[in-house]
Amino acid sequence: MHIRLYNARILTMADDGEPFAGELWTADGRILFAGTDAEAADRRREHPADVPAFDEEIDCNGDLILPGFKNAHTHSAMTLLRSRADDLPLDKWLNEQIFPVEAKMTEEDIYTLTKLAFLEYLTSGITACFDMYLTPRSIARAARDAGFRMVQVGAVNNFSQSPALVEEMYRELNGADPYNSYMLGFHAEYTCSKELLGQIAALAEKYQAPVYAHISETAGEVAGCKERYGMTPVAFLDSLGMFAYGGGGYHLVHVTEDDIRILKDRGLYAVTNPGSNTKLASGIAPVSDYLKAGVPVAIGTDGPASNNALDMFREMFLVTGLAKLRDNDASSVDAIEVLKMATVNGARAMGLDDADILAPGKRADLIRIDLQAPNMQPVNNIRKNLVYSGSKSNVRLVMIEGRIKYREGNFFLDESPEDLYAQAERIKARIDGK
Amino acid sequence: MHIRLYNARILTMADDGEPFAGELWTADGRILFAGTDAEAADRRREHPADVPAFDEEIDCNGDLILPGFKNAHTHSAMTLLRSRADDLPLDKWLNEQIFPVEAKMTEEDIYTLTKLAFLEYLTSGITACFDMYLTPRSIARAARDAGFRMVQVGAVNNFSQSPALVEEMYRELNGADPYNSYMLGFHAEYTCSKELLGQIAALAEKYQAPVYAHISETAGEVAGCKERYGMTPVAFLDSLGMFAYGGGGYHLVHVTEDDIRILKDRGLYAVTNPGSNTKLASGIAPVSDYLKAGVPVAIGTDGPASNNALDMFREMFLVTGLAKLRDNDASSVDAIEVLKMATVNGARAMGLDDADILAPGKRADLIRIDLQAPNMQPVNNIRKNLVYSGSKSNVRLVMIEGRIKYREGNFFLDESPEDLYAQAERIKARIDGK
Hints:
The structure is a homodimer.
Chain A: E1 2-10, E2 20-27, E3 30-36, H1 37-46, E4 56-59, E5 64-67, E6 69-74, H2 90-102, H3 107-123, E7 126-131, H4 136-146, E8 149-153, H5 163-173, E9 180-188, H6 194-207, E10 211-215, H7 219-229, H8 233-239, E11 247-251, H9 257-265, E12 269-272, H10 274-279, H11 287-293, E13 297-299, H12 312-327, H13 335-349, E14 366-369, H14 382-389, E15 395-400, E16 403-407, E17 410-411, H15 417-431
Parallel strand pairs in A: 1-4, 1-5, 6-7, 7-8, 8-9, 9-10, 10-11, 11-12, 12-13
Antiparallel strand pairs in A: 1-2, 2-3, 5-14, 14-15, 15-16, 16-17
């Protein structure tokens, strides 16, 4: 499959440069060419043999092409729980609403509910997600069947997922197909015994691999860890050798200066989840402090039970907006930084270094954004428009692995939205005993 | 023009009830009937003469119909300034970027740029706006020509708008046509002399009319007023008799308990603008304190130079999210309260009591929301879905004064989006001297 996107403005994210007028060619899942109109003309004239016969040529009408957004923390299958447990304190939310429903979910339910999330990711320009949940094999199957890029992370905890399963998945899912990969990880310090955590750290050592987990999401979690171990979660986990090969933390809202120094020293990613932290009243992450310290920040939606939308545009505005509020400074964390977080940093945090920017040889995971929409006009500054006034309603096309998965409101997956909605309703009815 | 919307779920906002399966009929700009399917069948059987010949009957496919959102504070024509002056402190933003451009804007520019904002309002389900800007006659003409519901408010200040013009507009625009109305108002305490403010208070007395203004948006503004007059802005303005007949304040971020008591005693509306307050780092308004005290809250986008989107879905999520963060309580300001603010309270703050809910005799200003979209599935709770996961991408139809103005991405105004974009680019080029 070869596709040519022309008459576009291309934002490669390879540097801090502005978008340029140009075109982009794909070949079998990879980017073959991304350059200015003049460079494209040169290529055609000087190396005609390098220019493939295109299966489709798309006139982009001056629209923007950029790398797809990377959703660097989520629990996709929790779509079932959207708007089912809102306006509750975290402990009631988790113990009275989330856990009882999750206990009734089957592997097949999770397969279907994960696919339901893919639909929503596509509408928001998200081309890959970093997913922590139960039943990793059925989640990988959903990604393969739908053609959505999925990076799973281990969810080891005292109740439902063992380090042995995580090791098995690590070996099974990495390299098995183009859509799936897998990272070592655990749910959180407060849901894992010290012994379990030691086993994860041993896996990190064995595979020389990064480790991810929920870390320091709430003030209560940090207080609990200090009581148990006399250290913050970041310091305690580091003391176990957990981060010898990198990784990072989801949320990282409540941290100390020493914690930030550890994150920096270990090369860890801070994955911020502002929508979830806002709706659950967890707090505002110190994003500007991370940037100042040189800790790379990526962005996740978290799951639809806590956010409740899987919308990278909403998250991007929240990242910069909450930083400005927290710092009492309207110039804090500007739009350009936020775009980097949502694309390049997300990709690298997820081990998708080959899908971070638009350049020859990189994976063809990209999106087309309508600039001829009222919220994008006039076009004073494209990148600021994207972050400050952009909306999922501006997403016109989403390509993953060189294939068009979403275009002008239509989905190109193996199952239709209507089928997935109907299946989700049946799952809901069964779990509710109806 | 008679339109029938059937196979719908109708959220009248007349009370705290859930949406019901039913239909809605319009007749010449008003709602003729809104009721359950059974009530509609009864009406047809028992009073066939009351059922008009419909010009159009729309199968809503189970989608939601609710009153259009009311944008209770904005500066529409500032579309020109979107993404032109971001990431700056408020004083630099205003003095170095906003004022110099505004000084070059003509009446015709403001006419065009206001219409550009209408497009964006429609995409987000906004059917009316409460607009404070320059050149009220050209703004009223834009509303009349486009068929958009416009409530303007006086912008008296020391530099550019006099109480005499506000009185003239108050007499000229109220009752002149179905789309326009006008309220007394001034820009802010810090841009008006005490003498000017006294003249506005005299107009309030003369017309027994409410008054609106920017009040207590920033901590600096409050400190300045205390220095000048020894009182907070709310207390000072009240001491002038400004609010003898009601009205309200835009922003109201930095207030005291005494201020809140005055707002309550005078029956004032607190119009909150969370997107703008976030992006300009002004602070978080005490929305839950207003609710507890019985001060009605409405929601505004503020202008596109400060927000930068005119998107009621983004504002609704911010209202509840920021309240939860501020109160450190995930149950603070729930979705049902927020929906009331965005519809009923907004309408009443703007003097549009006849467009507040869906009921016979009310103005036919309404929207259709797609429930068959990934971010709305499964449908556990429609109202929570609207506020917590809803998006402007779910708006399928917008009706104002019984006329369809936006439908499935298409606009039905007197000028096309492409023409308005081109005109905005020409205005930009002229102002920039290009």
